[in-house]
Amino acid sequence: MTGNHWGYGKEDGPYLWHTNYPIAKGNRQSPIDILPHEALHDPSLGPIILKYDRCTSSNITNNGHSVVVEFDDSDDRSVIQGGPLDNPYRLKQFHFHWGGKGCCGSEHTVEGNSYASELHLVHWNGVKYKTFGEASTAPDGLAVLGIFLEAGDDHRWLHMITDALYMVKFKGSVTNFKGFNPKCLLPSSLHYWTYLGSLTTPPLHESVAWIVLKEPIVVSEKQLSKFRMLLFTGEEEDQRIRMENNFRPPQPLQGRKVRSSN
Ligand SMILES: CCc1c(F)c(F)c(S(N)(=O)=O)c(F)c1F
Ligand SMILES: [Zn+2]
């Protein structure tokens, strides 16, 4: 693995990240395997509150690791609050992690079981920190809402994203993606597990309060297959490498407690 380049392949994958990012072997790394029966039910944990109504997406981009929908986070127009959080956290972007055909794909697992994909809505603590960059290195800087995607019927709103993926096939491509509200990607229940962890990609900062929803959303194999049409590689590169299996495996719990909303 040369320089700070990293990926999900044999030569630059998760098992090698520690060479350039030693925090990879830290004591609050993500993702983890969630064991529901060992999670502590904490009655003091209130519901999470998503105030996404004034939120507007700006663009969709292929950053060579995932497909990312970015938001205008210049004010507190779209925030997550409540649950384990002491104040509102601003929505910055959301992205996905997924597997190859028919197997694995999520980052968090539940009793060793993987889902086909996992959606991450990334928020930052705009009350305590001035920029996302500053927040991303602080222990209470980020809050990521994780939502599992299970293969089944077509998801009626996900097509708004999968229909745009052909426009960002290559690494480094970006296109306009206005007016998308991720509220339409939520499951019916907001019950969750929560624990303190990290970014699941380099730089792997240990700055994330993870909130993982228990109920997956259902999407079709056809919709999932459109994510796999994306490429890790840029238009100018000779090699075309399909973007799939862009997930980090579960990391040691290191004595951390996972709490359950109920
Ligand atoms: C530095 C930008 C960034 C990511 F690239 C990322 F993958 C994640 S993750 N998978 O932990 O949700 C973040 F939270 C995040 F802030
Ligand atoms: Zn992620």
Automatic annotation (TrEMBL):
Enzyme class of the recorded protein, top EC level: lyase
CC cofactor: Zn(2+)
GO molecular function, a single term: carbonate dehydratase activity
Xref: PROSITE patterns: ALPHA_CA_1, ALPHA_CA_2
GO terms for biological process, alphabetical: regulation of intracellular pH
Family matches, as SMART domains: Carb_anhydrase
The Alpha-carbonic anhydrase domain, residue ranges: 4-262
Annotated GO CC locations: cytoplasm
Keyword Lyase: yes
SUPFAM superfamilies (alphabetical): Carbonic anhydrase
Pfam families: Carb_anhydrase
EC number per UniProt: 4.2.1.1
Cross-referenced InterPro entries: CA_dom (IPR001148), CA_dom_sf (IPR036398), Carbonic_anhydrase_a-class (IPR023561), Carbonic_anhydrase_a-class_CS (IPR018338)
Catalyzed reactions per annotation: hydrogencarbonate + H(+) = CO2 + H2O
Keywords: Lyase, Metal-binding, Zinc
Keyword Plastid in record: no
Family (UniProt): Belongs to the alpha-carbonic anhydrase family.
Function: Reversible hydration of carbon dioxide.
Protein name: Carbonic anhydrase
Organism: Mola mola (Ocean sunfish)
